[in-house]
Amino acid sequence: MEETLSDRQQRMLAFIRAYVMEHGYPPSNREIGRATGISSTSVVDYNLRRLERKGHLVCDPKVSRGIKLNDEQPFVPLSSFQIPIVGRIAAGEPIEALEDTSETIQLSPDLAREGCYVLKVKGTSMVEDLIADGDLVVVQPQQTAQNGDIVVAIVDDDQATLKRFYREPGKGPGGTDRIRLQPANSEMNPIYCSPDRVRIRGKVVTVIRQIK
Q1: What is the DSSP letter of 9?
Q2: pLDDT tens-digit profile of 79-90?
Q3: CB 30: neighbour CB atoms within 10 A?
Q4: How many Å apart are CA 119 and CA 28, to the nearest integer?
Q5: What 3-state DSSP class applies to 152?
Q6: What is the tens place of the pLDDT at every residue in 16-69?
Q7: What is the CATH number of domain 7-69?
Q8: Residues involved in catalysis
Q9: How far apart are CA 163 and CA 79, in angstroms?
Q10: Element (H, E) at 32
Q11: Strands 117-122 and 81-90
């Protein structure tokens, strides 16, 4: 049996497993497409057939939501654990720093590691990275970032924002370094800060699309 999955197929399979775990039934092809950034349902269907041929699931075209995960695969069912939803994060202008809540979400190990936390996205500055208003992002806590990482950044100690991180040597005042917090929205401008004004709170490792 062919085992290798493309990145797209891995994202689809992870979403299907998470959806079934949360709802008790499989998602529709359109929901899979929305959650994984695929606009064409025919492309979703093609990749579902590939997953079926690789033995990961079974599709019944005569049944609505006719997807059944293959229980013989070692990753089904997956263990899972509760991840705290600790507040909201701005994908736009920075908003107040993280809020504590008592909400949690149950996620499988392929979507989050223990120690991660979840934030609800507010705003549209990251839409070109397929992170929309109302989505959930799983964040791995860390205090450093590589250029291009999508991070939770605290600006001036009390403003939280979700952006791509870039350190730009020599581009600040007097040739000092500066930090560019870059939105993924061509209609919005980046945020420029000196390094001492920015603290990294974590890196986004998973996006969970909220189906309307």
Answers
A1: H
A2: 567 788 888 887
A3: 12
A4: 25
A5: strand
A6: 988 887 777 788 898 999 998 898 989 999 999 999 999 899 988 777 788 988
A7: 1.10.10.10
A8: 125, 163
A9: 31
A10: helix 29-36
A11: parallel
d(CA 122, CA 125): 9
Separation CA 116–CA 109 (nearest Å): 11
pTM over 0.70: no
Q: Are the C-beta atoms of 109 and 79 separated by less than 8 Å?
A: yes
> In this structure, what token pair is assigned to residue 6?
């493309």
- Domain boundaries, given as residue ranges, for the chain: 7-69, 81-208
Task: Estimate to the nearest angstrom the gap between the alpha carbon of 187 and the chain centroid.
Answer: 22
From the options 3.40.50.2000, 1.20.140.10, 2.40.400.10, 2.10.109.10, give the CATH code of 81-208: 2.10.109.10
Q: Which helix (H) or strand (E) holds 166?
A: strand 159-168
